[in-house]
Amino acid sequence: MKRPILIHPDPRLKKLAPPIPDMSDDLRQLADDMLETMYGAPGIGLAAPQIGVDTRLIVMDCVKAEGEAPRPLAMFNPEIIAESDERSTYEEGCLSIPDIYADVERPAAVTARWIDRNGAEQQETFEGLWATCLQHEIDHLNGVLFIDYLTPLRRQLITRKMVKLKKDRAREKA
Fold this sequence. Notes:
The protein is of the alpha+beta class. It has helices at 25-40, 128-141, 152-173, and strands at 45-47, 57-60, 73-83, 87-94, 97-107, 109-115, 121-127.
């Protein structure tokens, strides 16, 4: 089931999400809903706080090549356990900040540990777009948005645009 995505500014996007104590069918269903929401947006990553759910769950799929099989990942309690000294810059966007993009510098490679949908611990090293997306989504779990890496003035301008967008959308629904 597709879920509505929160738009910045929303206080739920700035909260630290608590860890998941144990797996359940409800959490697996939430992961499925999040993947459907992410693909429908369309996006390459989504964190539970972005749909108003206060828990440490992210989904992502950075496969973009035509004809390449999708690789949907659902990561429960993800954490970065190592990062490269090498840095890379990607133009990032966010489903909670539509149509806004900015260059953000992050570690080029990261190793993450998480629990999969079957309750098994996983560990993998991600590079390139996968590494950027993973860091971006884990930031959401910690109440951090990609615009927090920008200058205060740029962040303020983007926030004003999002306030206007939310007002315009509310008017359209009325």
